From TrEMBL:
<dbReference type="InterPro" id="IPR037066">
    <property type="entry name" value="Plug_dom_sf"/>
</dbReference>
<protein>
    <submittedName>
        <fullName>TonB-dependent siderophore receptor</fullName>
    </submittedName>
</protein>
<keyword id="KW-0812">Transmembrane</keyword>
<keyword id="KW-0732">Signal</keyword>
<dbReference type="InterPro" id="IPR010105">
    <property type="entry name" value="TonB_sidphr_rcpt"/>
</dbReference>
<keyword id="KW-0472">Membrane</keyword>
<feature type="domain" description="TonB-dependent receptor plug">
    <location>
        <begin position="69"/>
        <end position="167"/>
    </location>
</feature>
<keyword id="KW-0998">Cell outer membrane</keyword>
<keyword id="KW-0813">Transport</keyword>
<feature type="domain" description="TonB-dependent receptor-like beta-barrel">
    <location>
        <begin position="254"/>
        <end position="714"/>
    </location>
</feature>
<dbReference type="Pfam" id="PF07715">
    <property type="entry name" value="Plug"/>
</dbReference>
<dbReference type="InterPro" id="IPR036942">
    <property type="entry name" value="Beta-barrel_TonB_sf"/>
</dbReference>
<keyword id="KW-0675">Receptor</keyword>
<feature type="signal peptide">
    <location>
        <begin position="1"/>
        <end position="25"/>
    </location>
</feature>
<dbReference type="InterPro" id="IPR012910">
    <property type="entry name" value="Plug_dom"/>
</dbReference>
<dbReference type="InterPro" id="IPR000531">
    <property type="entry name" value="Beta-barrel_TonB"/>
</dbReference>
<keyword id="KW-1134">Transmembrane beta strand</keyword>
Amino acid sequence: MNRLSLNPLAAALIAVFAAPLPLHAQQAAAPAAAQSSSAAGSLAPVLVEGNRDDFSTTSTAITKLPADLHDVPQSVVVVNKALMQSQGATSLSDALRNVAGITLNGAEGGQIGNNINLNGFSARTDIYLDGFRDRGQYFRDTFAMEEIEVLMGPSSMLFGRGSTGGIINQVTKKANLKQSTEVSASATTNGLVRTTADYNHPLSETSAVRVSAMAQNGPATTRNQSNVQDFGVAASYVTGIGTATEITLSTLIQHNRDMPDYGLPAVNGHPVNVDRNTAYGLLTDHTDQDVVSLNAGIKHKITPDITLRNQTQFNYVHTNAVETAPQSVGTVSGGVFTALSGNTSLPLSSLSVRAQSHDRSIRDYSIFNQTELSAKGTAFGFKHEALVGLEVGHDGYDVQNYYRNGSCNGVALTNNTTPTSGYADCISVVNPSYSTAGSSVASQVGNHQGGSANTIATYVGDTLELNQQFKLVGGLRYDRYVAQISNSINSINSAPAAKNTALAYANQSVNFLSVRAGGIWQPTAAQSYYLSYGTSFNPSLEQLTGTVGQTNLDPEKNRSYELGGKWDWAESLSLNAAVFQIDKQNARSLVSTGVYELAGNVRVKGARAGATGRINKQWQVALGYTYLDAQVMSGAAGDTAVGKVPTNTPKHTLTSWTTYEVAPHWQVGGGASFMSERFANPTNTVQVGGYTRWDATVAYLQPKYDIRLNLFNLTNKMYYDALIQSDGGRSVPGSGRTAMLSVNYRM
């Protein structure tokens, strides 16, 4: 089988990667050609033996997609356990640094936990756990994860509402028939200590149990007020392995007690120029989270080619947050705080930050059931791989807000027009005091938000094989989404009702038909080219929150076009490249504070390329690049975001990681992460500069154990990790230079 027979289109798309590989390609081509010649035109079988530390993954665990990524007409990036361990990635945010096109948002408004942008669009509610929406607001760890899968582009036909930029699926570790025990311990120069354990035990020839655990304590970054104290347990039981009927029961339980980081406010169009470790919260600030996920699934093979699956998942997240954030920068005269209204020439030492409380108790839960029938067969003279599914589910959301109204040098920061503002204190921009003084301000009951939604959907998809080279992919999904929300703000706020944008009550029913279509050309087993089209929708009450003007809004509608290719190079390196366009039509456009109209259009035109796998036996890489040309094309009259770049959307992102075995048992590696400039607010008046961050690793590898040193931010680069568009645009600095020593032992 000649794995290197590429036509001109393939050569053009992968040219970015071809330069460093010609010698290796020539070496691999000779035996492949000889094998092809000796077989007299027949295809010889190829046996590929994977290693436990391979970065490359050519399949997906998403049951709605073909297992082979060559048959998926969309870009898919898989970050597996080997890559995460090599980089010392312990959180979902760390793992997603390997995916070009992803940026991190900080906590803002009613949002806590992982808040992600994908291809220029919010993916806040597009995080999944084993194929089910994981909408809870919490910080996700990787201790129980086998891999993280990122499917690019609108995918409502597969997953229902959301997925404008794509979806992120966490694949948990499952019990198997191989006895194994793995224990790890690590410590950083910041003082963070962490340990994990993973135990898998076969109970019989067809059943097994697996338990994973994690605990960590200490400062997560070099920044002040970044302490975490987390622990978690995940377990799975699988019976019927290798039989016609397989049953899986799994659970994830996690507790987080973290210090929130709301970053730095802006002055003169940029993050305030202070020491990177400066924080404006209180030492008593904390975010406590309890997470419970329960999953039960059954898979029954009716025949070797027909499989019936049924799976139910329940997720519950309770968050208790006491948080203080920098709301604005201004001057203080006689105890009266006056926020800056534009640029200033005043020295930073003369300015103060007005802090605002973000206290709340959140309960977020969901229960969903999916039934799917998949079948392979021949009909009307063509081979088909078909899927029919039914999904029903319920989401619930309950938030009790609290506020702390304090003073600045003895003068109240709150007046009658904003009685529930939660302005808690004023502190120096340059030398904020880290104390518990502000915690003495009395906490009062604020708005009580409630929301719930019911979903019922049915979907059908098919991959039709026209011949050995051409396939057609199509699918339809019909969703009915019924949601309602409520707020108590008007009953507790003495301000005029006109000043409140929260809705006392609203409900919404959305019926939407999503479409997926594509064509695939596979001239050889090593090449796959595709053209695809997909749609998605975003109901206005998607996050179970709403403001004035959202009551009767239709859902935002998204569509994408993608042209790309995927190649296997020399049996061990996977390459991919694509160009795409995503349009969000009738987007919600801001009319006034908290008030929206469906008058917007957002367009993202982009290109991406990636390479994952081994260049040779000793050298492997994981590379990714994404170009995003994003713009708010139109909006309501007076919308100042029109013509601007969407928040937190860099034009260029590059991720790279490589390791090389320099001697038996010794490995060195490293990589760079590059991101061009971004804007921290919709009007593009707060700019955050681009950066390049370098990381490295050295490891001593043995069959039974690994000793690894990871070095993060080698050059101690000052950069901004996450952006927050609220309060004029805040930016969270990344951690300074840090080292982590870890030991991983296998029994």
